[in-house]
Amino acid sequence: MNRIDIPDEVAAAMRAAAAAAPPYQGDLAGVRRRGRARRQRRLATVAGAAVLVIGSATVAVPMAVDELTSGQVVSPGAAPTTTAPAQSAQPAQRLVVYGGYVTAENPQGNAGPLVAWPVEGDSTRAAFDRLRAEPDAHGVIGFPVEVLPDGAMVELDLTGLPEIGSLYQVVGLPDGRLVVLGAKERTYLFPDGSCDRDAGTAVDLPLLIVEPDRSVSRTGQIRTPCQPVELLAADADTAYLQRGGTTLVAYDFATGDERLLLARDSEGIVSMSVAGGRVADLRVGPVGSGCEVADRRSLEVRVARLDGGGASTHEIPVRGCATYHGPIQLSPNGRYLAVSYLEHSGTGTLAGGTPGIQVIDLAAGEVVVDRSLPRTDPDPRRGASGSVVAAAEIIGIAWSDPWLVRVAWLRPVPDGVHWLTDLVEVETVAVP
Amino acid sequence: MGAQAAALPLEEELDRPSAEAAEPFEAFYRAAVDRVYRALVVTLGDPQLAREATDEAMTRAYANWARVRTLENPGGWAYRVGLNWANSWWRKRRRERIVPSAPPDTTVTPPDPAATAAGQALAALALPQRAVVVCRVLLELSTAETAAVLGVAEGTVKSRLARALAALRTALTDPSIDPESS
Fold it and tell me: Which residue of chain A comes nearest to B34, CA vs CA?
């Protein structure tokens, strides 16, 4: 026996197997180069800051087909111009998803948690371990995670910044900065029944621009009553906020003023998106039930220029038994709208849904891409609380450039506690 | 939950290295990289994947060197990082799309019968068992160190090692016997 109580013949055989491996052919210089890049990515620093072309002049004309045919990358609030596109290695829109807590219902009617956490880090490791030990824990929200162009996932962990509460929404600017809407409590962002409207329980929420080194370069504050508020898009000067699910406002960092841009009727709005100087919303109208699971519905996409210069409406055919509950995202130049859906097989279970994405050409008013995303069958193992298999769900859409869109979705998994990196799948879809 | 061995810090939990901390990394790299790589080859059974996992582990070690250098067992940490990375779903997904940039090694070497037999016997083990044996034999870690590296309890290490050794002894004595069925 050797010193570690392994039979000598076994140890010798294993060493022989190791020695038989082909030689290692790594290089130290490459390791150092990638290590430096990794540090930069972890801090959400973008090496060689991307240049974002912001149109110096906007043309206030009604929305027309010809203005939607250019392909340049612009900030969310800027309308496309004839400026040449920037040569940037960074995506025009950064893909951010959120780890967090989802409650699914198992066939016995018991609620069981599906907890997806971001990549391991100081802020999440302890919470993850606690949840794994206590599967009935409730009310925990994860942190935003950026899916980098190479597929790596980086937690955008801003906990500890005194200006920000325990929760926050993030929009990543192409130059590496983050626009952050913070809150101390989840109900500040998404009020529940405990919010007392009569008492006027409005709260102030910090709205900040955070540099890659975590310093805060711009500060602002919005006041919100008992009303959901969502940070939809932003550039270095303006944050675009969806209030109450139906209203779009622009917050000016320089003045602190909030300007009403759009007020929609409330019925049927699924999602909003701001990019390329436009705002789009997806409205679902019920027209009867044709499938066991999903209602057959009409889809209406409404697009308006942020400067009030024009608007258009498109009726989009519904795909089969699909439901439309997920995000939508305008392309950087505002020409295309990516719309997520979940198509059901008619089996009566949400778990049977297959995620997909449609890309609508807003110039032509037609669907130019309809792609079912590859679905991984659920792990056959049972979860901690039974047999729950959560539905697949699209959780993020971002355009890399005017013709390539990245889509992130959660694959269906058993009820339980999972790392986000084990759940998220990403597909890049090209517009022909 | 059973008692867990003290876990090694994860690479995301570590700080950035200072500039002056960068140089000793080279000494660590030259001393440890081949051992970590070969341990991963034996564990994973795939030299190409092991090479990529080693590259990734060393990259993370460099990125976090100010803290990794203070660990009791930086090589064990690198092995664990490489193993986790290679086994992650994410890695599997990405791996399907990778086209090797370099042609495969075409060097023909006579097969070592002992190495072949050991490789077959190891391949029949479950990966967790293989990882324990590799830590104990190739990385020369104690039971406690192995538990820390793999993030499991010492009792788990012992039980996995006992089952693995029993299977390996049987397989190496009579290669016609499937170790998993023994």
Answer: A24
Highest mean pLDDT among A9-13, A64-68, A69-73: A9-13
- What is the rounded distance in angstroms from the CA atom of residue A13 to the CA atom of residue B140? 15
Q: In this structure, are residues B119 and A17 in contact, taking their beta carbons and an 8 Å threshold?
A: yes
Is the sign of the CA dihedral A135, A139, A145, A151 positive or negative? positive
Identify the closest residue of chain A to B107 by CA–CA distance.
Answer: A22
How far from each other are the two terminal CA atoms of chain A, in whole angstroms?
66
| Pairwise CB contact (< 8 Å): A18 & B42 | yes
Q: Which of B59, B68, B27, B84 is nearest to A37 (CA)?
A: B59
Mean pLDDT comparison of A412-426, B17-31, B136-150, highest-scoring range: B136-150
A9 CB neighbours in chain B (<8 A) are 169, 172
Predicted model pTM: 0.55
Beta carbons of A6 and B136 less than 8 Å apart: yes
pLDDT-derived band at A280 (thresholds 50, 70, 90) equals very high
Residues of B in contact with A24 (CB under 8 A): 33-34, 37-38, 51, 54
> Chains A and B: how many Cβ contacts under 8 Å?
137
Mean pLDDT of all residues in A360-381: 75
Q: Of the candidates A230, A253, A257, which has an alpha carbon nearest to the alpha carbon of residue A242?
A: A230
Q: How far is A2 from chain B (nearest CA, A)?
A: 9
Q: Which helix (H) or strand (E) holds A42?
A: helix A28-42
Q: From the CA of B58, how many Å to the nearest CA of chain A?
A: 6
Question: What b/e string do you get for A145-181 counting C-beta neighbours within 10 Å, with b at 16 or more?
Answer: bbbbeeeebbbbbbeebeebbebbbbbbbbbbbbbbb
Distance CA B163, CA B180 (A): 9
* Least confident segment among A300-304, A420-424, B4-8, B143-147: B4-8
For residue A116, which amino acid is it? A
- Neighbouring C-alpha atoms within 13 Å toward the C-beta of A390: 26
pLDDT of residue A77: 65
What's the token pair of residue A263? 């007020």
A373 chain-B contacts, CB cut-off 8 A: none
* Among candidates A16, A23, A42 on the partner chain, residue whose Cβ is nearest the Cβ of B115: A16
What's the complex ipTM? 0.76
Question: Which chain A residue shows the shortest CA-CA distance from B19?
Answer: A36
